[in-house]
Predict the structure.
Amino acid sequence: MISTRGRYALRVMIDLAEHSFENYTAMKEVAARQGISLKYLERILPLLVKGGLVEGLQGKGGGYKLTREPKDCSVGEILRLTEGDLAPVACLSCDSEPCARAGECRTLPMWTKLNALVNDFLSGVTLADLMKMQ
């Protein structure tokens, strides 16, 4: 399940793509348009900056903007930055210990395939695609 942080990050990225690809947009403007508290945005935007999807500028005329074209930003990348891992089960998570039952697990192939389907699908959807949806 995608958390509020992941869903809000997508909304922020779409907002920045629609309003400020070439110019910086103040965080308070994004917050007002999206109905997200500034405090919550202050937790999301650093993740997007650290991941290289957004850049920030302090001071007058500052704010945030995308570092790439919307067509070059995938939903999968955004969600992996904010959610950490999209694995459907703990044993497929990037930071999990190898499962002692993996060799005899009858469900592991199914979970592995689901994990690949979800990640491939989300990596194939871009901000530009979401901007077209109404």
